[in-house]
Amino acid sequence: MNFPDVAQLNKNFGAVGRIAFRAGPGGFPLAVMANKHGATEISLYGGQVLSYRPTGHLPVLFVSRNAIYAHGKPIRGGIPICWPWFGPHPDDSSRPMHGFARLLQWHLTTVEYGAENSEIRLCLLDDERTRAFWPHQFELTLRVVLDASLRIELTTLNTGNKPFVLTQALHSYFSVRQIMDISIRGLEGAYYDNVTNENVRQQNGTILIRNEVDRVYVNTTSDCVINDPGLGRQILIGKRGSHATVIWNPWIDKSKRMTDFGDDEYTRMVCVETANARDDAVSIAPGQKHTLIQTLRTDMKPKE
Ligand code: TA6
Fold first, then answer.
1. What is the rounded distance in angstroms from the CA atom of residue 72 to the CA atom of residue 145?
2. Which of 46, 235, 255, 301 gives 226 a disulfide partner, CB atoms 3.0 to 4.6 angstroms apart?
3. Residue of 37, 98, 171, 243 with catalytic role
4. Cβ neighbours of residue 144 under 8 Å, at least 6 residues apart?
């Protein structure tokens, strides 16, 4: 996988103080977008947002200190793109967990910026490698817009002649001060619990994290709010094109089993994932498209 030369990317797409490219960890090219509202970095490997920092705020996203930056491996943090399946492949467990989009090189298509916003588009197209994993033709476009929020849009276009069904997620890792002190609201409803594998359960009130949590909340179009008194902030997570939201924290034992994750890092992160998963799989006919959107913003909140 030979990435485009960073100097060439800066020559063709760079704009001083607005959009620049640099070689990140593992030599993966990173697009750096900045404006008065904040800054964000996107890896061309995996099409993965790796950082987002609104002006005057602390970083919003978490990336493990042990993250691995190697071809064919997922980067542990930021906003991994789980596509075209969420979780293990439904029929063949030998295929990569959470699909292949986060394991491939994406191609830069456009950058744009104005007084109030900056945006970048990357794309991934089917080829013989992807068709070996998933026998369909597609055009996958990632659009990242930085203004007073960070908006991530993932659009799947079926360019083939047969319909396909996909599950997917924007698997966002959020940075928190102390997992024991946060609460998450907006998901008072039914969920599948992947830890206990029990039948559908009901969420009553806000979500507190006191052990491993791996839940797919279904039939929900709600925005979520992470309340983090330790950092004196809230993270607001809006969504469109999704009826499922996933909440994950690996807690102690699973953290120890993850080589690309520090044993203690479960205390400083939580995943809130905008998804089409479980009952919310998406069927796309030839020539049709579906867009999954996650919108992030932070709001200072006096410490309780
Ligand atoms: O989103 C929750 C989940 O499906 C968990 O079950 C856990 O596997 C997590 O994703 C991380 O998956 P990954 O393949 O990135 O290690």
1. 27
2. 235
3. 171
4. 33, 40, 42, 49, 119, 120, 121, 150, 151, 152, 153
Tokens of 111: 């950058």
Q: What is the pLDDT of residues 44-77, one digit of tens each?
A: 999 999 999 999 999 999 999 999 999 999 999 9
pLDDT tens digits for 199-247? 899 999 999 999 999 999 999 999 999 999 999 999 999 999 999 999 9
Distance from Cα 87 to the centre of ligand 1, integer Å: 7
Residues within 6 Å of ligand 1 by CB: 74, 87, 97-98, 171, 194, 214, 246, 248, 271, 273
Q: What is the DSSP letter of 63?
A: B
Which tokens go with 11? 């020559």
Whether this prediction's pTM lies above 0.85 is answered by yes
- Residue 198 a catalytic site member: no
- Residue 273 annotated among the catalytic residues of the structure: yes
